[in-house]
Design brief:
Blueprint lengths: L5 E5 L3 H15 L6 H8 L4 E7 L2 E13 L2 E11 L8 H16 L3 E6 L4 H10 L3 E6 L18 E7 L3 H4 L10 E2 L1 E5 L5 E5 L9 E7 L2 H7 L1 H20 L2 E8 L3 E8 H4 L5
Parallel strand pairs: 4-5, 8-11
Antiparallel strand pairs: 1-2, 2-3, 3-4, 5-7, 6-7, 9-10, 11-13, 12-13
Helix pairs in contact: 1-2, 6-7
Length: 273
């Protein structure tokens, strides 16, 4: 599917909010965000970006203003693509277009959350968009009942996208060779990934790596207890890294596992980080 076949544009009317509501329900099979909430948000500094194919809404991103430590940022709360159009690069194009609109409105930072064990999302956020993460939120949304999240604590990375930084505008890449591994992966009798912690975190190490399963949904489907073990073990490792001044900057997706990379925040030389 080529980009010229798609139309990206901000959504501003109640009729368009109704289209988003129906697509929201279709994607996640949950109670959608009501129109009165989304329309109020976009009238007060928020952004609802839609993507259309042949006149049909097939994706949206929903964001609204956030405020912390005396600074305003854009909180990008939801990004959804019709299942028939997923894995076609639409989400990445939507984020860059969302960035353009956010900059026009005066934002210089955007934040959002994702499950760090969902490696496709990690690849988009850290590798393709050059967002970073040094904040881990335990059970961020409580006990969720949708098919992707049901049965596990809804832990999340909160990523930061510094829209005007050289790190983002120049798509700077961090050299990830010679990282110190924090864990190893072994394989059980069912060929499912098992986490084996290796090293403690110390502030003197230049870069750390941390392995996670490539397909966490498949692991969860076959062994929920093992999936919970991954959640809790990586929770501890992620939190320890962040507490010691490291930030996630990249993820490498391999055949059976993926690898996160972490450097000291000061190494990035991003103002405000």
């Amino acid at each position: 599917m080529n980009d010229f076949e798609l139309e990206y544009r901000p959504l501003t009317t109640m009729e368009e909010m109704a289209l988003v509501k129906e697509l929201d329900r279709k994607i996640w099979d949950m109670d959608p965000v009501p129109e009165h909430q989304t329309i109020t948000a976009i009238k007060n500094g928020g952004i609802m970006l839609g993507v259309f194919h042949e006149g049909t809404l097939i994706g949206f991103s929903y964001s609204f203003p956030g405020f912390e430590h005396g600074k305003v940022y854009l909180c990008s709360h939801m990004l959804g693509i019709d299942p028939l159009y997923q894995s076609k690069g639409i989400g990445e194009k939507m984020k860059w277009k969302q960035r353009d609109i956010a900059k026009e409105k005066g934002y210089d930072v955007m934040k959002w959350t994702y499950d760090p064990l969902e490696t496709k999302n990690g690849k988009l956020n850290l590798t393709k968009l050059n967002a970073i993460c040094h904040t881990y939120v335990e059970n961020c949304y409580g006990n969720m009942t949708d098919k992707l999240n049901k049965g596990l604590p809804s832990d999340r990375f909160e990523v930061e996208w510094h829209l005007n930084s050289n790190y983002v505008t120049e798509k700077e890449q961090i050299e990830v060779k010679n990282a110190t591994p924090l864990n190893a992966i072994s394989w059980n009798e069912a060929n499912q990934a098992v986490c084996q912690p290796l090293n403690d975190v110390t502030e003197t190490v230049e870069m750390y790596s941390l392995h996670v399963p490539k397909d966490f949904q498949s692991l969860k489907k076959h062994d929920k207890e093992l999936a919970l073990e991954w959640r809790l073990k990586t929770r501890h490792l992620f939190q320890t890294l962040f507490a010691n001044g490291y930030t996630a900057v990249d993820i490498e997706v391999k055949e059976q596992m993926s690898t996160y990379y972490f450097v000291k925040k000061v190494q990035l030389q991003i103002e405000g980080v």
